[in-house]
Amino acid sequence: MRSRQRMFAAVMRLLLKCLRLGRRRRFKLVRQVERLWHYGHLCLRSLLYNSFTNGDVVLDSLFEPVYWLVDHVTRWFGVVFVALVIGLTSSIVAIVYICLLPLILQTYTPAWICWHLAYGHWNLIMIVFHYYMAITTSPGHPPQAKNDLTGVSICRKCIAPKPARTHHCSICNRCVLKMDHHCPWLNNCVGHYNHRYFFSFCFFMTMGCIYCSISGWEMFRDAYAAIERMKLLEKERLQVAANQTYYQTPPPTFSFRQRAFHKSVVYLWVLCSSVALALGALTLWHAALITRGETSIERHINRKERQRLQKKGKVFRNPYSYGSWDNWKVFLGVDVPRHWLTRVLLPSPHLPHGTGLSWDLPPCVMEQRAPLLAI
Ligand SMILES: [Zn+2]
Ligand SMILES: [Zn+2]
Protein backbone atom coordinates (compact mmCIF):
# COMPACT_ATOMS: atom_id res chain seq x y z
CA MET A 1 0.00 0.00 0.00
CA ARG A 2 2.80 2.34 0.98
CA SER A 3 4.80 1.52 -2.15
CA ARG A 4 1.73 2.29 -4.27
CA GLN A 5 1.35 5.69 -2.62
CA ARG A 6 5.02 6.41 -3.21
CA MET A 7 4.68 5.49 -6.88
CA PHE A 8 1.58 7.70 -7.28
CA ALA A 9 3.43 10.63 -5.71
CA ALA A 10 6.40 10.08 -8.06
CA VAL A 11 4.12 10.02 -11.13
CA MET A 12 2.35 13.21 -9.99
CA ARG A 13 5.70 14.95 -9.44
CA LEU A 14 6.83 13.92 -12.92
CA LEU A 15 3.57 15.15 -14.42
CA LEU A 16 3.86 18.51 -12.66
CA LYS A 17 7.45 18.82 -13.81
CA CYS A 18 6.41 18.12 -17.42
CA LEU A 19 3.63 20.70 -17.23
CA ARG A 20 5.98 23.36 -15.82
CA LEU A 21 8.48 22.54 -18.58
CA GLY A 22 5.79 22.82 -21.29
CA ARG A 23 4.67 26.14 -19.92
CA ARG A 24 8.22 27.42 -19.95
CA ARG A 25 8.72 26.20 -23.52
CA ARG A 26 5.42 27.72 -24.66
CA PHE A 27 6.38 31.12 -23.24
CA LYS A 28 9.77 30.83 -24.89
CA LEU A 29 8.11 30.16 -28.27
CA VAL A 30 5.73 33.12 -27.88
CA ARG A 31 8.66 35.36 -26.95
CA GLN A 32 10.60 34.14 -30.00
CA VAL A 33 7.65 34.78 -32.34
CA GLU A 34 7.20 38.21 -30.78
CA ARG A 35 10.90 39.01 -31.24
CA LEU A 36 10.78 37.83 -34.88
CA TRP A 37 7.67 39.95 -35.55
CA HIS A 38 9.34 43.08 -34.13
CA TYR A 39 12.52 42.40 -36.08
CA GLY A 40 10.61 41.90 -39.39
CA HIS A 41 8.50 44.99 -38.76
CA LEU A 42 11.62 47.07 -38.07
CA CYS A 43 13.35 45.70 -41.20
CA LEU A 44 10.33 46.53 -43.38
CA ARG A 45 10.01 50.04 -41.93
CA SER A 46 13.72 50.78 -42.33
CA LEU A 47 13.60 49.53 -45.96
CA LEU A 48 10.51 51.58 -46.86
CA TYR A 49 11.39 54.68 -44.82
CA ASN A 50 11.61 57.88 -46.83
CA SER A 51 11.42 61.41 -45.47
CA PHE A 52 9.36 62.40 -48.57
CA THR A 53 6.75 59.68 -47.98
CA ASN A 54 3.29 61.08 -47.39
CA GLY A 55 -0.35 60.24 -48.14
CA ASP A 56 0.01 61.16 -51.83
CA VAL A 57 2.94 58.77 -52.30
CA VAL A 58 1.01 55.92 -50.66
CA LEU A 59 -2.05 56.67 -52.83
CA ASP A 60 0.16 56.84 -55.95
CA SER A 61 1.71 53.48 -55.05
CA LEU A 62 -1.72 51.90 -54.62
CA PHE A 63 -2.91 53.24 -57.98
CA GLU A 64 0.36 52.32 -59.73
CA PRO A 65 -1.18 49.28 -61.60
CA VAL A 66 -4.01 51.50 -62.92
CA TYR A 67 -1.51 54.18 -64.06
CA TRP A 68 0.61 51.47 -65.68
CA LEU A 69 -2.38 50.18 -67.65
CA VAL A 70 -3.51 53.67 -68.76
CA ASP A 71 0.06 54.65 -69.75
CA HIS A 72 0.57 51.49 -71.82
CA VAL A 73 -2.83 51.72 -73.51
CA THR A 74 -2.20 55.41 -74.37
CA ARG A 75 1.27 54.49 -75.74
CA TRP A 76 -0.14 51.71 -77.94
CA PHE A 77 -3.15 53.73 -79.08
CA GLY A 78 -1.01 56.78 -79.90
CA VAL A 79 -0.27 55.42 -83.38
CA VAL A 80 -3.97 54.61 -83.90
CA PHE A 81 -4.97 58.16 -82.91
CA VAL A 82 -2.41 59.70 -85.28
CA ALA A 83 -3.67 57.45 -88.11
CA LEU A 84 -7.23 58.53 -87.25
CA VAL A 85 -6.35 62.25 -87.46
CA ILE A 86 -4.58 61.76 -90.80
CA GLY A 87 -7.37 59.52 -92.15
CA LEU A 88 -10.25 61.81 -91.16
CA THR A 89 -8.48 64.97 -92.38
CA SER A 90 -7.63 63.28 -95.68
CA SER A 91 -11.24 62.16 -96.13
CA ILE A 92 -12.49 65.75 -95.69
CA VAL A 93 -9.87 67.10 -98.12
CA ALA A 94 -10.81 64.39 -100.66
CA ILE A 95 -14.54 65.22 -100.40
CA VAL A 96 -13.79 68.93 -100.88
CA TYR A 97 -11.64 68.25 -103.97
CA ILE A 98 -13.87 65.60 -105.56
CA CYS A 99 -17.37 66.81 -104.67
CA LEU A 100 -17.34 70.47 -103.69
CA LEU A 101 -14.60 72.11 -105.74
CA PRO A 102 -16.14 71.27 -109.18
CA LEU A 103 -19.45 72.68 -107.92
CA ILE A 104 -17.77 75.86 -106.62
CA LEU A 105 -15.93 76.35 -109.93
CA GLN A 106 -19.16 75.93 -111.90
CA THR A 107 -21.56 78.02 -109.84
CA TYR A 108 -19.63 80.67 -107.84
CA THR A 109 -18.51 84.12 -109.01
CA PRO A 110 -14.75 84.61 -109.77
CA ALA A 111 -14.26 86.64 -106.56
CA TRP A 112 -15.73 83.86 -104.39
CA ILE A 113 -13.76 81.20 -106.31
CA CYS A 114 -10.51 83.12 -105.61
CA TRP A 115 -11.39 83.50 -101.90
CA HIS A 116 -12.21 79.78 -101.44
CA LEU A 117 -9.12 78.63 -103.35
CA ALA A 118 -6.77 81.02 -101.49
CA TYR A 119 -8.16 80.61 -97.96
CA GLY A 120 -8.81 76.87 -98.23
CA HIS A 121 -5.29 76.08 -99.45
CA TRP A 122 -3.59 78.42 -96.96
CA ASN A 123 -5.53 76.85 -94.07
CA LEU A 124 -4.74 73.34 -95.29
CA ILE A 125 -0.99 74.11 -95.56
CA MET A 126 -0.99 75.57 -92.01
CA ILE A 127 -2.76 72.47 -90.61
CA VAL A 128 -0.46 69.98 -92.35
CA PHE A 129 2.74 71.91 -91.49
CA HIS A 130 1.92 72.37 -87.80
CA TYR A 131 0.67 68.81 -87.33
CA TYR A 132 3.77 67.36 -88.99
CA MET A 133 6.03 69.58 -86.85
CA ALA A 134 4.10 68.82 -83.64
CA ILE A 135 4.43 65.04 -84.05
CA THR A 136 8.04 65.02 -85.28
CA THR A 137 9.59 67.71 -83.01
CA SER A 138 10.91 66.50 -79.67
CA PRO A 139 9.42 68.51 -76.77
CA GLY A 140 12.91 68.75 -75.19
CA HIS A 141 14.46 66.78 -72.32
CA PRO A 142 17.00 67.69 -69.62
CA PRO A 143 20.56 66.79 -70.76
CA GLN A 144 22.03 63.44 -69.78
CA ALA A 145 25.17 65.07 -68.30
CA LYS A 146 23.71 65.98 -64.93
CA ASN A 147 26.59 68.09 -63.54
CA ASP A 148 25.94 71.29 -65.47
CA LEU A 149 22.32 71.56 -64.36
CA THR A 150 20.99 73.88 -61.70
CA GLY A 151 18.06 71.63 -60.81
CA VAL A 152 15.42 72.92 -58.46
CA SER A 153 14.13 69.46 -57.59
CA ILE A 154 14.86 65.79 -58.20
CA CYS A 155 12.73 63.56 -60.43
CA ARG A 156 11.76 60.52 -58.38
CA LYS A 157 11.47 58.35 -61.52
CA CYS A 158 14.65 59.45 -63.38
CA ILE A 159 16.63 60.12 -60.14
CA ALA A 160 18.01 63.21 -61.87
CA PRO A 161 17.78 67.01 -61.40
CA LYS A 162 14.60 68.53 -62.78
CA PRO A 163 14.90 72.15 -64.08
CA ALA A 164 12.09 74.64 -63.43
CA ARG A 165 8.86 73.92 -65.40
CA THR A 166 10.10 70.38 -66.20
CA HIS A 167 7.84 67.44 -65.36
CA HIS A 168 8.07 63.68 -65.72
CA CYS A 169 5.88 62.07 -68.39
CA SER A 170 4.91 58.56 -67.31
CA ILE A 171 3.91 57.62 -70.89
CA CYS A 172 7.22 58.72 -72.49
CA ASN A 173 8.97 57.62 -69.27
CA ARG A 174 11.25 60.67 -69.19
CA CYS A 175 11.37 64.25 -68.00
CA VAL A 176 10.02 66.86 -70.45
CA LEU A 177 11.07 70.53 -70.51
CA LYS A 178 8.19 72.97 -69.86
CA MET A 179 5.80 70.04 -70.08
CA ASP A 180 2.19 70.89 -70.92
CA HIS A 181 0.66 67.43 -71.34
CA HIS A 182 1.05 64.15 -73.23
CA CYS A 183 -1.15 64.35 -76.32
CA PRO A 184 -2.41 60.98 -77.67
CA TRP A 185 -3.54 62.71 -80.91
CA LEU A 186 0.13 63.59 -81.56
CA ASN A 187 1.56 60.46 -79.90
CA ASN A 188 4.04 62.91 -78.41
CA CYS A 189 4.52 65.08 -75.37
CA VAL A 190 3.76 68.79 -75.69
CA GLY A 191 6.67 70.69 -74.21
CA HIS A 192 9.12 73.56 -74.70
CA TYR A 193 10.05 72.90 -78.37
CA ASN A 194 6.68 71.86 -79.82
CA HIS A 195 4.15 73.76 -77.71
CA ARG A 196 3.70 76.43 -80.43
CA TYR A 197 3.22 73.77 -83.15
CA PHE A 198 0.59 72.02 -81.02
CA PHE A 199 -1.37 75.22 -80.34
CA SER A 200 -1.12 76.42 -83.96
CA PHE A 201 -2.36 73.03 -85.18
CA CYS A 202 -5.37 73.22 -82.82
CA PHE A 203 -6.07 76.80 -83.88
CA PHE A 204 -5.82 76.23 -87.66
CA MET A 205 -7.73 72.94 -87.47
CA THR A 206 -10.56 74.72 -85.62
CA MET A 207 -10.46 77.54 -88.19
CA GLY A 208 -10.61 75.02 -91.04
CA CYS A 209 -13.55 73.17 -89.47
CA ILE A 210 -15.45 76.43 -88.86
CA TYR A 211 -14.74 77.48 -92.47
CA CYS A 212 -16.05 74.14 -93.83
CA SER A 213 -19.11 74.24 -91.55
CA ILE A 214 -20.08 77.80 -92.52
CA SER A 215 -19.38 77.54 -96.25
CA GLY A 216 -20.95 74.07 -96.48
CA TRP A 217 -24.15 74.91 -94.53
CA GLU A 218 -26.36 75.45 -97.62
CA MET A 219 -25.02 72.31 -99.30
CA PHE A 220 -25.56 70.32 -96.10
CA ARG A 221 -29.20 71.42 -95.91
CA ASP A 222 -29.81 70.46 -99.56
CA ALA A 223 -27.98 67.14 -99.15
CA TYR A 224 -29.88 66.31 -95.96
CA ALA A 225 -33.23 67.09 -97.66
CA ALA A 226 -32.17 64.99 -100.67
CA ILE A 227 -31.30 62.00 -98.43
CA GLU A 228 -34.70 62.26 -96.73
CA ARG A 229 -36.39 62.39 -100.17
CA MET A 230 -34.24 59.47 -101.28
CA LYS A 231 -35.39 57.35 -98.31
CA LEU A 232 -39.05 58.19 -99.01
CA LEU A 233 -38.79 57.36 -102.72
CA GLU A 234 -36.97 54.13 -101.92
CA LYS A 235 -39.81 53.11 -99.60
CA GLU A 236 -42.44 53.91 -102.23
CA ARG A 237 -40.44 52.08 -104.91
CA LEU A 238 -40.25 48.94 -102.78
CA GLN A 239 -44.01 49.09 -102.11
CA VAL A 240 -44.75 49.41 -105.84
CA ALA A 241 -42.36 46.54 -106.61
CA ALA A 242 -44.10 44.33 -104.04
CA ASN A 243 -47.53 45.01 -105.62
CA GLN A 244 -46.37 44.32 -109.21
CA THR A 245 -47.25 41.02 -110.82
CA TYR A 246 -44.24 40.83 -113.18
CA TYR A 247 -40.71 40.10 -111.91
CA GLN A 248 -38.85 43.19 -112.97
CA THR A 249 -36.93 45.48 -110.61
CA PRO A 250 -38.01 49.14 -111.06
CA PRO A 251 -35.18 51.56 -112.01
CA PRO A 252 -33.44 53.36 -109.07
CA THR A 253 -34.59 56.92 -108.39
CA PHE A 254 -31.11 58.23 -107.44
CA SER A 255 -27.86 57.21 -109.08
CA PHE A 256 -24.93 55.89 -107.01
CA ARG A 257 -23.01 59.09 -107.73
CA GLN A 258 -25.83 61.27 -106.39
CA ARG A 259 -26.18 59.16 -103.25
CA ALA A 260 -22.42 59.25 -102.59
CA PHE A 261 -22.36 63.02 -103.15
CA HIS A 262 -25.18 63.78 -100.70
CA LYS A 263 -23.89 61.39 -98.05
CA SER A 264 -20.36 62.80 -98.35
CA VAL A 265 -21.61 66.36 -97.86
CA VAL A 266 -23.56 65.34 -94.72
CA TYR A 267 -20.52 63.43 -93.37
CA LEU A 268 -18.26 66.45 -94.03
CA TRP A 269 -20.56 68.90 -92.28
CA VAL A 270 -21.29 66.72 -89.24
CA LEU A 271 -17.60 65.85 -88.72
CA CYS A 272 -16.37 69.43 -89.23
CA SER A 273 -18.95 71.03 -86.94
CA SER A 274 -18.33 68.43 -84.19
CA VAL A 275 -14.55 68.90 -84.36
CA ALA A 276 -14.99 72.70 -84.48
CA LEU A 277 -16.95 72.58 -81.19
CA ALA A 278 -14.70 70.12 -79.34
CA LEU A 279 -11.34 71.38 -80.61
CA GLY A 280 -12.53 75.00 -80.41
CA ALA A 281 -13.17 74.60 -76.66
CA LEU A 282 -9.72 73.02 -76.18
CA THR A 283 -8.06 75.81 -78.21
CA LEU A 284 -9.80 78.49 -76.12
CA TRP A 285 -8.65 76.78 -72.93
CA HIS A 286 -5.04 76.70 -74.15
CA ALA A 287 -5.29 80.31 -75.36
CA ALA A 288 -6.37 81.35 -71.83
CA LEU A 289 -3.38 79.46 -70.37
CA ILE A 290 -0.94 81.12 -72.81
CA THR A 291 -2.39 84.54 -71.92
CA ARG A 292 -1.59 83.82 -68.26
CA GLY A 293 1.88 82.42 -69.05
CA GLU A 294 1.02 78.98 -67.66
CA THR A 295 1.09 75.39 -68.88
CA SER A 296 -1.74 72.92 -68.16
CA ILE A 297 0.29 71.40 -65.29
CA GLU A 298 1.27 74.82 -63.88
CA ARG A 299 -2.40 75.83 -63.87
CA HIS A 300 -3.05 73.31 -61.04
CA ILE A 301 0.24 74.03 -59.23
CA ASN A 302 -0.29 77.81 -59.37
CA ARG A 303 -3.91 77.53 -58.21
CA LYS A 304 -2.83 75.60 -55.11
CA GLU A 305 0.01 78.06 -54.47
CA ARG A 306 -2.38 81.02 -54.94
CA GLN A 307 -4.79 79.56 -52.37
CA ARG A 308 -1.95 78.78 -49.92
CA LEU A 309 -0.55 82.31 -50.09
CA GLN A 310 -4.03 83.84 -49.95
CA LYS A 311 -4.56 82.20 -46.55
CA LYS A 312 -1.38 83.89 -45.36
CA GLY A 313 -2.57 87.23 -46.73
CA LYS A 314 -0.01 87.24 -49.56
CA VAL A 315 -0.48 87.58 -53.33
CA PHE A 316 0.85 84.94 -55.73
CA ARG A 317 2.78 86.16 -58.77
CA ASN A 318 3.56 83.81 -61.64
CA PRO A 319 7.32 84.25 -62.33
CA TYR A 320 6.92 83.09 -65.97
CA SER A 321 4.23 85.60 -66.92
CA TYR A 322 5.36 88.84 -68.60
CA GLY A 323 1.87 90.32 -69.11
CA SER A 324 -0.89 89.04 -71.45
CA TRP A 325 0.36 90.62 -74.70
CA ASP A 326 4.04 89.84 -74.06
CA ASN A 327 3.16 86.26 -73.14
CA TRP A 328 1.67 85.83 -76.63
CA LYS A 329 4.68 87.47 -78.29
CA VAL A 330 7.11 85.24 -76.38
CA PHE A 331 5.02 82.14 -77.09
CA LEU A 332 4.75 82.84 -80.84
CA GLY A 333 8.35 84.12 -81.10
CA VAL A 334 7.34 87.59 -82.35
CA ASP A 335 10.35 89.87 -81.79
CA VAL A 336 9.61 92.51 -84.48
CA PRO A 337 6.25 93.45 -86.13
CA ARG A 338 7.03 91.67 -89.43
CA HIS A 339 7.20 88.36 -87.49
CA TRP A 340 3.39 88.45 -87.22
CA LEU A 341 3.36 87.72 -90.95
CA THR A 342 6.45 85.55 -91.34
CA ARG A 343 6.22 83.57 -88.09
CA VAL A 344 2.49 83.47 -87.32
CA LEU A 345 0.55 83.68 -90.58
CA LEU A 346 3.06 81.64 -92.58
CA PRO A 347 4.62 78.26 -91.71
CA SER A 348 7.78 78.92 -89.70
CA PRO A 349 10.16 76.44 -88.04
CA HIS A 350 11.79 79.04 -85.70
CA LEU A 351 12.85 77.87 -82.24
CA PRO A 352 11.29 79.19 -79.00
CA HIS A 353 13.12 81.59 -76.70
CA GLY A 354 15.66 79.97 -74.37
CA THR A 355 16.73 76.39 -73.84
CA GLY A 356 13.93 75.39 -71.47
CA LEU A 357 16.52 74.75 -68.73
CA SER A 358 16.61 78.26 -67.25
CA TRP A 359 14.04 81.03 -67.59
CA ASP A 360 15.70 84.38 -68.21
CA LEU A 361 13.72 87.37 -69.46
CA PRO A 362 13.19 86.99 -73.27
CA PRO A 363 14.96 89.71 -75.40
CA CYS A 364 11.69 91.26 -76.68
CA VAL A 365 10.43 91.74 -73.10
CA MET A 366 13.83 92.98 -71.87
CA GLU A 367 13.95 95.65 -74.61
CA GLN A 368 10.56 97.01 -73.51
CA ARG A 369 11.45 97.02 -69.82
CA ALA A 370 14.92 98.56 -70.26
CA PRO A 371 13.68 102.22 -70.46
CA LEU A 372 11.47 101.64 -67.39
CA LEU A 373 14.39 100.20 -65.44
CA ALA A 374 16.63 103.12 -66.52
CA ILE A 375 14.13 105.60 -65.00
ZN1 LIG B 1 11.82 62.15 -64.87
ZN1 LIG C 1 4.86 62.03 -72.91
From TrEMBL:
<feature type="domain" description="Palmitoyltransferase DHHC">
    <location>
        <begin position="153"/>
        <end position="300"/>
    </location>
</feature>
<keyword id="KW-0012">Acyltransferase</keyword>
<dbReference type="InterPro" id="IPR001594">
    <property type="entry name" value="Palmitoyltrfase_DHHC"/>
</dbReference>
<dbReference type="GO" id="GO:0007507">
    <property type="term" value="P:heart development"/>
</dbReference>
<comment type="similarity">
    <text>Belongs to the DHHC palmitoyltransferase family.</text>
</comment>
<feature type="transmembrane region" description="Helical">
    <location>
        <begin position="197"/>
        <end position="220"/>
    </location>
</feature>
<dbReference type="Pfam" id="PF01529">
    <property type="entry name" value="DHHC"/>
</dbReference>
<dbReference type="GO" id="GO:0006974">
    <property type="term" value="P:DNA damage response"/>
</dbReference>
<dbReference type="GO" id="GO:0016020">
    <property type="term" value="C:membrane"/>
</dbReference>
<feature type="transmembrane region" description="Helical">
    <location>
        <begin position="112"/>
        <end position="133"/>
    </location>
</feature>
<keyword id="KW-0808">Transferase</keyword>
<keyword id="KW-1133">Transmembrane helix</keyword>
<protein>
    <recommendedName>
        <fullName>Palmitoyltransferase</fullName>
        <ecNumber>2.3.1.225</ecNumber>
    </recommendedName>
</protein>
<feature type="transmembrane region" description="Helical">
    <location>
        <begin position="76"/>
        <end position="100"/>
    </location>
</feature>
<feature type="transmembrane region" description="Helical">
    <location>
        <begin position="265"/>
        <end position="288"/>
    </location>
</feature>
<dbReference type="GO" id="GO:0019706">
    <property type="term" value="F:protein-cysteine S-palmitoyltransferase activity"/>
</dbReference>
<dbReference type="InterPro" id="IPR039859">
    <property type="entry name" value="PFA4/ZDH16/20/ERF2-like"/>
</dbReference>
<keyword id="KW-0472">Membrane</keyword>
<keyword id="KW-0812">Transmembrane</keyword>
<dbReference type="GO" id="GO:0001654">
    <property type="term" value="P:eye development"/>
</dbReference>
